[in-house]
């Protein structure tokens, strides 16, 4: 049996989660939500899109407040696209 790589042993799954207050992905470093994070959420909430949107709205409010403090200005339109638009049911 081939040995698992140590990285995988110590971290069996490194989820694509946000680093606060930068809101960049802990794993891939992209602006969160990165594509893998979106896919994971779509799978997790596939039976309840409304709950997903509520969850994302909460995160967007949190990110908006934290990013506004970091940047000195709010970017609500950008955040809507980043957090909500991709998840809306068609
Ligand atoms: Zn990521």
What's the structural blueprint in terms of helices and strands?
Blueprint: H1 6-10, E1 18-19, E2 24-25, H2 35-44, H3 49-71, H4 76-83
Bound molecules: zinc ion.
Helix and strand content put the structural class at: mainly alpha
Average the pLDDT over all residues and give the rounded result: 85
Number of helices: 4
Quaternary structure state of the chains depicted: single chain
What is the alpha-carbon Rg in Å? 15 Å
| Record field, number of beta strands | 2
- Distance N to C terminus: 47 Å
* Shape field: globular
Can you list the ligands bound to this structure? zinc ion
Beta-strand residue percentage:
under 5%
Please give the largest β-sheet.
2 strands, antiparallel
Query: What is the strand arrangement across the widest sheet?
Result: 1-2
Helical proportion, percent range: 40-55%
Poorly predicted residue ranges: 2-9
List SSEs in N-to-C order: HEEHHH
How many domain regions? 1
């Amino acid at each position: 049996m081939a040995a698992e790589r140590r990285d995988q042993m110590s971290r069996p799954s490194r989820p694509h989660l946000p680093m606060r207050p930068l809101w960049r992905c802990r794993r891939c470093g992209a602006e969160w939500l990165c594509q893998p994070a979106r896919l994971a959420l779509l799978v997790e909430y596939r039976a309840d899109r409304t709950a997903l949107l509520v969850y994302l709205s909460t995160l967007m409010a949190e990110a908006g407040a934290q990013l506004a403090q970091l940047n000195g200005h709010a970017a609500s339109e950008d955040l809507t696209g980043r957090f909500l638009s991709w998840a809306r049911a068609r």
